[in-house]
Amino acid sequence: MKKTKITVLAKPDKRYVPDITIYCIGLKTKDKPDISKDIICSSLLSASSLGDFKGNEGDVLLAYGENTPKKEKSKRRAFVGLGKIDRKTKKYELQEKMRIAGGNIASLCKKIEAGKVAIVLPGLPIKSTLQDAVSGLTEGVLLGDYHFRRYKTDSKEKKSYTGIKELKIVVSDYSKPLQQVAERASIIAASTCHARDMANEPGNGWTPDSFADYAEKLAQKYQLKCTIFEKNDLEKMRMGGILAVNKGSAAPPKLVILEYFVSKNAHTLLLVGKGLTFDSGGVSLKPAAGTEEMKYDMCGGAAVLATMNAVGAIQPHCNVVAIVPATDNMPGGAATKPGDIIYHYDKKTSEIINTDAEGRLILADALAYGIERYSPDYVVDLATLTGAVIIGLGHHHSGLFSNDDILADKL
């Protein structure tokens, strides 16, 4: 995966000639953008007077070579709206506004195929919020710049756009910590893109072995402890849920564990992610329409292992354990049948009514083992567990269930 070079500056770099310079503009009053004197150009004034650019979230205006300041060397200029930002704007609201702006910037850069980009941030009502602004903007640009082209071939006439290679963020109230903030945000965004890469692989491109290989690479890179339990180990441990789901598969299951340890006195967070690399439904076969999307049933496991990439790089002051039960769910001759009764790791039994309810079976084993083995202070499990969440909440919200409101608010 490509890496974007990010630099935070107090003023534009005179030696740097970007493909585009982008000015972030807030909403001053109703339908009026907050335009400072040093960025005024005829296109911006005309668009503002016509109501075509108001400074709202989602507003984007591209201009060419008008009244360009001498200090600015750029092939193009653009203006991107942030919406209303004032002293009442909360931290998470500001971060999200900046992520949205960053996503709009990435879309614009893709349209014009910009590789070198400069972004100018306006002054904010409260200087202490600048770190949140830089963090959100960096995440938004990098997440919006994501591409997955592994299985696509470039045409002979034109090579595909490979994304933003270099990004410079100009901030008037510059301070040294802002560079660290941007680097931390880039680690989080890159880790998210790792998870997206795993998810976008087809069922034959990402298997239980792939989870194990990725975990071992992370362990080597960040000196984490990695444990891979194979099928024989799972049989000895009586992991009946994982084994039952795997019975119809030609690929053996894995239980993948990564450990980041700080000290015995630190809190321990246990992360468990559903790693169903393909879900056919088993004997309770899914309808054919949309089944190709069941490769995404491992997104919980992808999120958990990608989190460990961020954990290894950022090194938080708590212990973190990640567990991914990995298998696929296929209707083979030996597959688990409706009506079968299985024994889980903690010797509890489950009667299988529908083999398409496989996620809770493998998570039950992983959670029981993780809680017994590590005695965590907090447990978070992530799973594409049921399509009913989409019916209830739509495609833009995730379901969150918790017995601890304080932890839920933090998440």
Explain the overall architecture.
- The chain is 34% helix and 21% strand.
- The model has no long low-confidence stretch (mean pLDDT 93).
- Strands 1, 2, 3, 4, 5, 6 and 7 form a seven-stranded mixed beta sheet that branches. Strands 8, 9, 10, 11, 12 and 15 form a six-stranded mixed beta sheet that branches. It has a two-stranded antiparallel sheet with strand order 13-14.
- The protein is α/β, with parallel strands linked by helices and 411 residues long.
Order of helices and strands: EEEHEEHEHEHHEHHEEEHEEEHEHH
Overall pLDDT: 93
Total number of helices: 11
Low-confidence stretches: none
- Quick one: overall form? elongated
Span between termini: 28 Å
Q: Tell me the helix content.
A: 25-40%
The percentage of residues in β strands lies in: 15-25%
Compile the SSE list and pairings:
Elements: E1 5-9, E2 20-29, E3 32-33, H1 42-49, E4 60-63, E5 77-83, H2 91-112, E6 116-121, H3 130-144, E7 166-171, H4 177-200, H5 208-222, E8 225-229, H6 231-236, H7 240-246, E9 254-260, E10 268-273, E11 275-279, H8 299-314, E12 319-329, E13 341-343, E14 349-351, H9 359-374, E15 378-382, H10 388-393, H11 405-410
Parallel strand pairs: 1-7, 2-5, 2-6, 6-7, 10-12, 10-15, 11-12
Antiparallel strand pairs: 2-3, 4-5, 8-9, 9-12, 13-14
Helix pairs in contact: 2-3, 3-4, 4-8, 5-8, 7-9
